[in-house]
Amino acid sequence: MKAFQKTASAILASTLIASAAQAAQISDDEIRIGYLADMSGTYRDLAGPGGLEALKMAAEDFGGTVDGKKIVIFNADDLNKPDVGANTVRQWVDERNVDMVTGLVASSVVLAATKVVEQADKLALISGAASSGITNEFCSPNHIHWTYDTYALANGTAKAVLGAGGKSWYMLTADYAFGHAMEADITKVVEGGGGSVVGKVRHPFPSSDFSSYVLQAQGSGAEVIALANAGADTVNALKTASQFGVTQSGQKLAGMVVFLNDIHAMGLDVTQGLMLTTGWYWDMNDETRAWAKRYHERVGSMPTMAQAGVYSATMHYLNAVKATGSDDTTTVRAKMAATPINDMFAKGGQIREDGRMVHDMYLVQVKTPAESKGEWDLYKIVSTIPGEQAFRPLAESQCKLVKDQVAKH
Amino acid sequence: MTLLFGIPLSVLLGQLLLGLINGAFYALLSLGLAIIFGLLRIINFAHGAQYMLGAFAAWLGLSYLGVNYWVALLLAPLLVGAIGMAIERHLLRRIAGEDHLYGLLLTFGLALIVEGSFVKLFGVSGASYPMPELLKGGYNLGFMFLPTYRAWVVVAALVVCIATWYMIERTRLGSYLRAGTENPKLMQAFGINVPLLITLTYGYGAALAAFAGVLAAPIYPVSPTMGANLLIVVFAVVVIGGMGSIMGAIVTGLAMGLIEGLTKVFYPEAANTVVFLVMVIVLLVRPAGLFGKEA
Question: pLDDT tens digits, chain B, 295 residues: what are they?
Fold first, then answer.
């Protein structure tokens, strides 16, 4: 028995030494980053190849190395399929010993990929995905949600539209998990603010023709038509609404998950006056404009908030690696949380224990064709929503990491 | 207010009208597929890509060359038709007489290449094609607001559909076409250039798809994937109508638009599947399709 205890403690001691040694160095003498995103499908333009370019910009701004350790970038197309995404990440961590995975767009892919990342004890920095569940019921110490989430978007936009006097609401909901979650988030805000939801229609995902749903929404007489969908569905719904004279008849539209590339694709004729919430916009100040100009020169379009988020998250990660001299997940994660984010993307951003990066969000309105001075001059900032009001408060969190904290107190 | 199945009659009328508009699109697209299958026995999986090319030709023409909508409505089908003829002449002809599967795979491969290249060039968000000035605005019908453009779509699609049906079923050229597919050797013995007829037919089918693409450009986003999304439904329409039946494709296209329209009111969740449900039932009861001849 004594001998056993001796061996056990020896093993324990040696592992401790080993992990301590590991904590103070860079594995494989390289910082390996994987970029996983939809590179060819529906979500290509909101992150896709542009996000990869943003990641490369971050690596180049570090001179390609952190203290002489090379930054190596892998990338893959997840095709918006959770199994493809999870398998890719598994290969990366198993065979290439990738330290950090970023991009991460479709919520379904992200939920699958982050499980693999957690098992392998690596780090995931999520920029593209929407679901607020990522840092709520699916939170883990191994991932951080950077740019935005459904809670912040619904909260920001619905509150603003409600405040402007839109009391009766009609929901146009994409008929799958994300749409239902969005619908619930919006309903909560509307009913909490004294408004009412007078009707809804759940359309199949994806749909190409929205004329029937728009007509039903129009017939409902609701003051506000909320679009609890995303991407091509939102674009189609907005275009159809404009043709059927929805706004002319006095009804307001509220798009929830709308990206810069969507507005650019639809044009201002269709989208003018639309209120939406964004985590970042290229034309906010000199810093954002300077970065966006560099990006535009490389990619040929202006960056979306998701693409800017990839850059910001990667820079913050690399800074933490540099400061700690380690790429060990726990060490880097702790350093990242301890350091506020102050860059072109966010001012005073903070990473919470649930993995939510809390930063200011912006309520914007789409410009009229007369107001716009260029191809990408699309938003005017209406107001800034302080981070602590924008995101789900920790008090409402179902995240196991937060519950642990509460239990300790 | 008169109620029918718990839905106000006015709402129902509006939805039926919308169904008819969508049906006109289905009819136009499935017509091209039916002609190509009926006369060439090729299952044209490139049809969606050809539809997309029509829309892009219109958009590119307007953005870079200042070609207006009305000219595009004529030029885009000609251009895509010419591309179609080149494909038939140089690729499809090599596999003529082989199993249907080869034609399907070849056209599917072409569609993937074209759509992939367009994604690379233009992204997936797509572009917006401005509404032509003449067709802006709409009519208040009392029970709904009907955008002028949608009314135009129905008229244009139906005129083209009926003209095509007339040409194939009622004219001398049409009779050559039909005879050429029945017995090409005999027709050639009469001095008819059958290979040319076949090339023209495929070109015409592709041109119909492009025409539908230009019609769609002002109302849907012009994007590389716009055709792929629609193609499967259109195939179902062709199967329901009876592979190769021209009138079958037109009537079924309109009917499926109406059925889908009603589904969107009574049970919107099933709107994308109802066409396939009808397809299954039709295949069980009449395997050759509603208008198809029993083999």
Answer: 566 666 777 778 888 999 999 999 999 999 999 999 888 888 999 999 999 999 999 999 999 999 999 999 999 999 999 999 999 999 999 998 888 899 999 999 999 999 999 998 988 878 889 899 999 888 888 888 899 999 999 999 999 999 999 999 999 999 988 888 778 888 889 888 989 999 999 999 999 999 999 999 999 889 998 998 789 999 999 999 988 788 999 999 999 999 999 999 889 989 889 999 999 999 999 998 998 875 5
Residue type, A14: S
- Close Cβ partners of B148 (under 8 Å, ≥ 6 residues apart): B135, B136, B137, B138, B139
pTM above 0.80, yes or no: yes
**CB-based contact, A44 to chain B, within 8 Å:** yes
Q: What residues make up the domain containing B30?
A: 11-285
Nearest CA in chain B to A205: B272
Q: How far are the Cα atoms of A33, A89, A106, A119 from residue A86, in angstroms, in the given order?
A: 16, 5, 12, 12
- Asked whether residue B120 is domain-assigned, the answer is yes
Closest to A265 (Cβ–Cβ): which among B19, B128, B145? B128
What's B91's domain CATH number?
Answer: 1.10.3470
> What burial class does residue A370 get, using C-beta atoms within 10 Å of its C-beta: 0-12 exposed, 13-18 middle, 19+ buried?
exposed
Chain B residues 84-103 with CB within 8 Å of chain A: none
Domains present along chain A, CATH in parentheses: 27-148+285-355 (3.40.50.2300), 151-278+361-387 (3.40.50.2300)
Please answer yes or no on whether A243 and B126 come within 8 Å at the CB atom: no
